[in-house]
Amino acid sequence: MDPEVRFDRVSCHFGNVKAVDDVSFEIAEGEFFAMLGPSGSGKTTCLRMIAGFQYPTQGKIFIHGEDDSNLPPFERNVNTVFQDYALFPHMSVLDNVSYGLMVKKVDKRERHMKAEEMLELVKLSGYGNRRPSELSGGQRQRVALARALINRPRVLLLDEPLGALDQKLREQMQVELKALQRQVGITFIFVTHDQQEALSMSDRMAVFNEGRVEQIGSPREIYDRPGNAFVAEFVGTSNVLDAVEAQRITGIARPLSLRPEKITIAGPSQGKDGLSGVVADVHYMGAHTRYIVDVGDDAPIRIAVQRQNVVGDDLKVGSSVALSWDDDAVRPLDGAEQ
Amino acid sequence: MSEALATTVTPGPSLTRRLSGFLYSHPHLLLSVLLLPPLLWLGIIYVGSLLALLAQSFFSIDEFSGMIVHEFTFNTYRQLFSPANMDIVVRTASMAATVTIGAALIGFPIAYYMARYATGKTKAFMYLAVMLPLWSSYLVRVYAWKLILSKEGIIGWAFEQVGASWLLEMILALPVIGGASLSVSYIGMFLVFLYIWLPFMILPIQAALERVPPSLLDASSDLGARPVTTFRKVILPLAFPGIVAGSIFTFSLTLGDYIIPGIIGSSRLFIGQAVYLHQGVAGNIPLAAAFSVVPIVIMAIYLSVAKRLGAFNAL
User: Fold this and answer.
1) b/e A216-248 (16+ beta carbons within 10 angstroms → b)
2) Architecture of the domain whose range is A5-234
3) Domain with CATH 2.40.50.140 in chain A
4) CATH code of the region A264-326
5) Could you tell me the pLDDT band of residue B9, with boundaries at 50, 70 and 90?
6) A311 membership: H or E segment, kind and range
7) How far from B41 is each of A160, B51, B81, B110, CA to CA, in Å?
8) What span, in angstroms and rounded, lies between the C-alpha atoms of A1 and A100?
9) How many alpha carbons fall within 13 Å on the CB side of residue B238?
């Protein structure tokens, strides 16, 4: 079966800037796919190329097996939820949602009926007569979703869909978007710079950096087995050690990543098995605490360690501690397997 | 030592500080203090004089003595509605409407280009090109146009050079809007009005288009709309308040102008000229006032129709 979306060596240049540089990947039908990266990494340009707002400078984009690289947006069976929602301010919510059908010349009664159905799907029944300006940010987002889904697209694109919402609403919408995708059963491709969001929502994700895809895989693969230092540091936090540091700390002379939560930290009262160090800083984060520990005698290396808070934590700045970890917590970053 | 110095030198808060503190904690007082002078200006000089004008139109003039009779009467309005005066009103309103439509048709594409495509230096140049004529004397520009439009002017010359004088003559032979030469025809007057008021149409439309986020156009096209549909359903409705604002300028400025009809065109009067004549030579201030009420009424009707059409929905 053809993949839903396929990038074949796609580049997109703006003058001298290579916004997207020789990118190839595939997105399967029905997948919840995240494009993650810092701003300016090319993820949004990729999304815009799938929508048709931007054409590739080189390479081809196939949507459901057809070369759609140079097809204008209005001829693609792909719809978008915009970052600023892009609701038409001069139309009611109902007219906004039914816009796609209005364009297709579906008669007014039928398209309003369909629009009501879509509003029900996003839990906004009864809001049809309002203006977008009368809605809250979360409600506007739902309208944007309903409007993008009414044409029954093969692929739904979401550009930083939760970026403008506050933390609580964000978490709620993450769950709802996931449920919605299962319900409508179409491919969702969403762009985000929030690694937590990408990890928690997507089936698979691509990590972008400077116009290139650094790694593609399931959230678990990306988190547990980051392919390089950028991915290790951008997705979650990690102690990234170069070959020299790694040699001193682990005895393995290869660049590697060590996740803070995989390190066991033992206080002065708990014995001295493992690497000895001194706590340089303590960040209390509620459920857990992050310790910054200096290890090594003459040229200390900073290691972040994280552990669940328990009653009677007695580690302070200056405490001497011992760090230890399992062998499989160490992830080499030079490509070769362990 | 320095601490002791600081405590002895610091007096209580200074008067200005106490005043600013007081005003800060009484924002409404501050607002009224700041707003009072401009509000007085607006209230007395603007609205007040307008009401005085309205009142004048309900007085009449004594035909024998030429004195104004300060008694309420509709006589002046009866005079206004005489066929000769109504001709003036219809003539002026038609010219204003034509100029407005012409300015909208020419102004919209320019405004659209400025708002959507022009960037950096091009945009600055476009602004300058639109505004520059406003910086030179209005009279000079109108007289320049008289020369351009005259029989020996550059337009006549150009038609002659390409051997199309017959075309110009055909146009000038048209009834009502034609004339002996462009400079004494309504066509000529239309061109000059169009030239003079065009910036007032371009700038509001440009401002309205500038406020339309590009993502709305992306969204429309994303939902399947071809460019023509996007234009009709998204761009035009959102630019409409700008078009209405521009047309208020071009329409009312044309309605009230008395200089262009005096220099270009035939000797038939326009409202502005009628007002000028009645309050000047004839000393018939009530009729002049009644004449100047006409543009106000026309604009009021125009605005209420525009509101009905939803011109201000997107505001």
Assistant:
1) bbebeebbebbbbbbbbebbbebbbbeeebbee
2) 3-Layer(aba) Sandwich (3.40)
3) 264-326
4) 2.40.50.140
5) low
6) none
7) 50, 14, 34, 36
8) 29
9) 22
| One-letter identity of residue B5 | L
Q: CA A1, CA A64: separation in Å to the nearest integer?
A: 9
User: Coil, helix or strand for B52?
Assistant: helix
Mean pLDDT for the stretch of residues A5-13? 95
Which residue in the set A52, A72, A84 is minimally distant from B213, CB to CB? A84
Q: Residue A247 in contact with residue A253, Cβ under 8 Å?
A: yes
Q: Is B39 helix (H, G, I), strand (E, B) or coil?
A: helix
With CB atoms and an 8 Å threshold, state whether A103 touches B223.
Answer: yes
Q: How far is B225 from chain A (nearest CA, A)?
A: 6
Distance CA B48, CA B50 (A): 5
Counting Cα atoms < 13 Å in the Cβ hemisphere of B233 gives 23
Report whether A177 contacts A161 (CB < 8 A).
yes
**ipTM score of the complex?**
0.86
Query: Where in chain A are all domains bearing CATH 3.40.50.300?
Result: 5-234
Token pair for B96: 């204003």
Domains of chain B: 83-308 (1.10.3720.10)
Token couple for A170: 């964000």
Tokens describing residue B229: 């549909």
pTM: 0.81
* Cα of B311 to nearest chain A Cα, Å: 10
